[in-house]
Write a structure and sequence with these properties.
4-stranded antiparallel β-sheet; 6-stranded mixed β-sheet; disordered C terminus; 10 helices; alpha/beta; 248 residues; binds adenosine-5'-triphosphate; 42% helix; single chain
């Protein structure tokens, strides 16, 4: 008998007026995997994420967490089930320092003080923040450090599933590589689904890649096979490579 997927969607649709941003998506995510979602701009990746957490109410179809239909559940109830999302815009408390931000994330898990102290210090170590960075107000962090602070908050909150929307956007290659390492740590205890455009990042992390195009799943496979797929190359990878060359 096959194992129940940790997360699945069935015929998921999200319409904005006449536009089906997500158009009948069936997704099956196995516990413990790192899945990458790719696709051209406007393919529906962020909308799909927001449907999974009910930041957007799906127009039709189902989202199933360990086989349970999440229909009608409020966003905070979904968060309490352990489905966490990191949107493109970091959601951190700008006036608090990094340690306090991470502490708040751990507190939401209901940890007692001693364990909380331990988790906070371990997390700071995992994201590679020294004392000076740990005590810096979040508002004054660089772009990459802000992203890592938010990943630290995810680590401290210990989700079952972490949805990461373009965590390396605007990062240098070196910063991207450090982000790969942090996400691997996150994946030690959480299933990870990540929307990304950076092909090296995807190749380093993803076991399977789902390609979205115009709200539908175009193909799903390993990164090697995805890169060799003519249609994907035409609509996405080819254009990306051209863009990368043009940027140089
Ligand atoms: N709140 C909204 N209201 C109306 N249309 C929306 C809304 N959010 C997204 N859309 C539209 O839905 C489509 C899918 O957008 P979405 O942001 O999900 O794409 P994406 O694949 O995440 O793109 P990108 O890679 O650029 O972030 C786009 O045509 C977008 O303009």
């Amino acid at each position: 008998m096959s194992e129940t997927p940790i997360l699945a969607t069935r015929g998921l649709v999200k319409r904005f007026g006449g536009l089906a941003a997500v158009d009948g998506v069936d997704l099956v995510i196995t516990a413990g995997e790192i899945r990458c979602l790719i696709g051209p701009n406007g393919a529906g990746k962020s909308t799909l994420f927001k449907c999974l957490t009910h930041q957007h109410q799906p127009t039709s179809g189902q989202v199933l967490f360990e086989g349970r239909d999440l229909h009608g559940l409020a966003t905070h109830r979904i968060a309490r089930l352990g489905i966490a999302i990191k949107n493109q815009i970091p959601s951190i408390y700008a006036n608090l320092d990094v340690r306090e931000n991470i502490r708040l994330a751990g507190l939401r898990r209901g940890l007692a003080k001693r364990q909380l102290d331990r988790v906070v210090e371990l997390t700071l170590d995992e994201i590679g923040f020294n004392e000076s960075l740990a005590s810096q107000p979040a508002a004054t962090l660089s772009h990459a450090h802000r992203q890592w602070c938010e990943l630290g908050m995810l680590l401290a909150s210990s989700p079952r599933i972490a949805l990461l929307d373009e965590p390396t956007a605007g990062m240098t290659r070196e910063e991207m590589l450090k982000t790969v390492d942090i996400i691997k740590l996150l994946n030690a205890s959480a299933t990870v689904i990540v929307v990304e455009h950076d092909l090296e990042f995807i190749a380093r992390l993803a076991q399977r890649v789902t390609v979205l195009h115009r709200g539908k799943v175009l193909v799903e496979d390993t990164m090697d096979k995805i890169e060799a797929n003519e249609i994907v190359r035409d609509i996405y990878l080819g254009r990306k490579k051209e863009a990368t060359h043009a940027e140089r």
